Each structure stands twice: as C-alpha cells, then as structure tokens.
Amino acid sequence: MRSAFVMYSVLSLFTLIGILPAASSNDAVTDVINADFNKTYSAIINTTNEAIYKFTYREMKNKTTAVRITTELHADPKRDARSFPVIVVIRQQQRTLSWTMPLFLEYSNTSTPYETISRNLCPLDASHRPEIPAEQSFFVDVSTFNKEPLNFTLKAAKMENFQISTGIPREISFTPSEPQFYMYTFPAGVDSVLVHASSEDEKCAVMSIQTIQCPVYDMNVDVEFEGKYQTMTKQAAIQIQREDYPNGAFYVVFVLKPLDKTCSSEIETISLPGITRSKTVTLEIKTTISSDKYYWGMVFAVAVFGSFYLIAFLIGVIYHGCSKHRGIWMIPDPPEANLDQISDDMDSPVRPLHSNPRTQSYGSFQRQANDDDQNDLLNTMIRDNASTGASSASRGMDGNSVSSIDSDDIDFLKDADQEKDVFRTKVGT
C-alpha cells in the first residue's frame, strides 16, 4: 500500500514537470514599450500576444495638459469583428478609459463599424494638480481574443490648443467615433458667456456643456447624461452663467450622431461602408450680460411704462374732478369789479324779465325772439309811468296835495326787480 502511494507521487511529479515547460511556452510574454508623443506605433496582436505602451509627461501647475489617443485597426472586413474585437484600455493614475476596434455605435446588424477611434484623455483640473507629482504616466494596453493576427496603429499627441479664448473662432472637425471637447475658462470680470456653434452641413450633432470633472461624457450613448446639451444641424447656442460652475471653467463637447433621426424625422439612407461621416463646426464664445442685468433691464422697462400709465391716470382724475366741481376751482372777481357791477345795476331803471336768454320753461307762450320785444315794450311803459309819477310828486311838493298821487301807479313790492317766469295753463272751453 505504501509502495503504491510512492509510485503515484513519483508519476504525479513527472507529470507536473512535463506540464510546466509546456505551460510556460504558451504564456504570452509582453514587454512594456516606452513610447513617445507624436509618433505612430504599429503592432500585430492575437490571443497570445498583446501590446503595452507607456507614455510619460510633465504636468504643469498653471496650464491644463490634454492628451489625445488615436487608434486604427487594419483588418480584413470579412472577419467576425463583433465576436473578437480589439480591446484598447488606457490606465491612468486615477481613472481608466476603454473602447473596442471596430466600434459599433448603433446596436443593430446594419450599423456601420468604425475602425478609427480617437478620444481625449480626461485632464487633471487645477484643484488636483498640487496633490499629484509633476511627472505623470499612463499605459495603453491593446489586446484581443482573436486567434488570427490583427494589425493596428497607435498614436498619442498633446493638444496644443486645448484652451478656447473669448471672441476667437475655432474650427473643429469630428466624426461619430472621434468626438472632440475643449476647455474654456471665464476671464476676470466676465459672469456670462454665449457658446455659439455654426456649420454649413445639416448632419445631426450634439453640443454639450459639462463641468470640469472626470469622466467626460463624449460618446453617442452617454453625451446626454451630464450638463447642458443641444442638438444641432447648422446652428447651436447655449448661454452659460459663471455662478453655475464653481471652478470658473467648463468643457465644450461635440459629438456627431451616426444617424440624423435625432434631429429630423425624415427617412434617411444608411451610409455605405468606406464613406466617412464627418462634420465641421465653427465654435465661438462671446461675452454677454448676466441674468441679473437682464432682470434689472426688465424692471426698468416696466417702471418706465408704468410711470406713463400713472401720469395718465392722475391727469384723468384731476380733469374729472375739475369738471365735476367747476365752481370750487373758479377764482372770484376782485371787489372793485363787483362794486362797479352793483353800481351799473342800480343805475339801470329796471332789470329785464329774462336776463338769461337760454332760460326757458315748459309752457311759455312765446319764443325767445318775441321775449326781447316784449321786454323792450315793458321797459318803455315803466319809464313813462315813472316819469309821470315823478312829475306828479313835484307838483305836490309845490303845494298840491299828496293825496292826488294815484297809489296804483307805484309798485311797492320788494320783488319788482326779480326775474319772473310766466306760465300758461290750459283753459277749458
């Protein structure tokens, strides 16, 4: 029994010794390549062979460093690329970024494969730069599960014009698999800007405004997850307030849709293989007034128009009050004018019956034109009687008896000088 156990152990040891060399021969030995920027690298990979590249650069404390990675697959289109794609993984100190080659943006059998993919690595913002060393490194791992050899190219480059300036137009070209994003920082004294993009073609794209953070959503499937966005064909504009971005900066992201159905309901044809779908826009950021100034302008306009209405209302109230109480607002005549008028009234022998020609009462038996003649006749008769009475009184004073004066000729009533209206009533026949 013991000899059998020893025999089994020896056989197991020989078997393990025989397996180890075979296993070690099948393991893929991968060397890390120290790569340089702005240089194109090419390699062939398969299941047992992968490529790893290491890039090193120095991070500046007063400037944002942006790196763009571009990969391209050179493979036979007849091969099954969906089942065994090439996987690209970029490992940074605090995050990772990955994609596949070819890249399928529409999940259908008729979707177009994109063999060229280019994307920006998420830069370090100003708040995190002092916490990390100045020398930064990242690795690019390229691998596949395909047994057949696949050829690809890789290139890393620093973006020189990653920052956008106010009032300076910038032309940007991008494809569905090659999105673009740039950084804008608010200058001192600027609280509001207008991000405006224009294009000559009508391809459907998305312009997104995102905060300075990682990850940056710059693909067709996730560009709408963060910040403000607007679909566009020829024009797009978004107003940005500084108070909405505590860092005083933001990213402007451009993504081209693989189909135009997001922007239009018209039926479109699918792009044929080999035809690159691209779009070029002109980006310009302009300063505008802040929302507080908009509100103050609206309040001032409303106040101006309201003052006009208030003045018109006061004028209407005063005019209505004057017309309703006209006697209160009339200035009386001076005393001298009243005395002259009283003396003139005393000098006149008698006042007419109708001093106001417009005063008419119902039932008068003559018109106004005949009233004037009647008043003249009555005045003449009163003067004659007054002169006769005066001469009789003078004769009485000369020695004649006062009793000779007929009392019927003199009217002692106090209301002789007051106006009277004569009314005619119907008399039955």
TrEMBL record:
Q: Where is the composition biased (Polar residues)?
A: 356-368
One term under GO cellular component: lysosome
Compartment list: Membrane
One Pfam family here = SID-1_RNA_chan
Q: Which InterPro entries match?
A: SID1_TM_fam (IPR025958)
Which parts pass through the membrane? 294-319
Q: Where is this region: Disordered?
A: 346-370, 387-411
Q: How is this protein situated with respect to the membrane?
A: Multi-pass membrane protein
Ribonucleoprotein found in the keyword field = no
Record key words, sorted: Glycoprotein, Membrane, Signal, Transmembrane, Transmembrane helix
Give one GO term, molecular function aspect.
RNA transmembrane transporter activity
Q: Does the keyword Lipid metabolism apply?
A: no
Instruction: Give start-end of the signal peptide.
Output: 1-25
Q: Which family does it belong to?
A: Belongs to the SID1 family.
What protein am I looking at?
SID1 transmembrane family member 1
